[in-house]
Amino acid sequence: MLDIGKGDIFEDLKLKLCLSVTLLAMAPKAAEKKPAEKKPAEKAPAAAEKKPKAEKKISKEGGDKKKKRIKKNSETYKIYIFKVLKQVHPDIGISSKAMGIMNSFINDIFEKLAQESSRLARYNKKPTITSREIQTAVRLVLPGELAKHAVSEGTKAVTKFTSS
């Protein structure tokens, strides 16, 4: 067996894969969204809190209207990456750039697995993607021992989900 050091790329990929598999199990669901917790802040002056909003003056012509920007709801794995990071290394933080990279990494892996499992279902003339197709896709997409770890983590997550 190959002796791998702690700072090796394989260990890094193994950690990233475990993170992504765990995050896929913790993926956001529309019904489970919780509002962010508010930290108790120092009291601000009462006058600043009760300041009425200025009303918009409507011009008679109406030609000066600006288009409102529609905020796009883009779901990310950032909070889940942070939760897993704190489970693995409670004393380490992560920069926003690194967080963006991790989010892209998880999206890429997820898309590759989805494409491969879709292809497998089509080859077998099945209309449904089951956990079996996903497990086979993981074995095909990820190399060697990384696939073994991913399959075991995925099986553990599915077992935990079905038992609850």
Question: How is this structure best summarized?
Answer:
The protein is mainly α and 164 residues long. The chain has helices spanning 9-25, 46-49, 78-88, 96-123, 131-141, 144-163. This is Histone H2B.
Question: What is the typical, i.e. mean, pLDDT?
Answer: 77
Task: Supply the CATH architecture of the domain at 17-24 and 76-164.
Answer: Orthogonal Bundle
Rg computed from alpha carbons, rounded to a whole number of angstroms: 23 Å
Count of DSSP E strands?
A: 0
Helix content: 55-70%
Largest sheet: none
Based on Cα principal axes, name the global outline. Answer: extended
* Unreliable sequence segments: 1-7
Percent of residues in beta strands? under 5%
Work out the helix count: 6
Question: Structural class, from secondary structure content?
Answer: mainly alpha
Just give the CATH class of the domain at 17-24 and 76-164: Mainly Alpha
Word description of this protein:
- With 164 residues, the protein is mainly α.
- The chain has a domain at 17-24 and 76-164: Histone, subunit A.
- Helices cover 55% and strands 0% of the residues.
- It has 6 helices and no strands.
- The protein has helices spanning 9-25, 46-49, 78-88, 96-123, 131-141, 144-163.
- α4 (96-123) crosses α5 (131-141) and α5 packs antiparallel against α6 (144-163).
- It is extended, with a radius of gyration of 23 Å.
- Mean pLDDT is 77; it is low at 1-7.
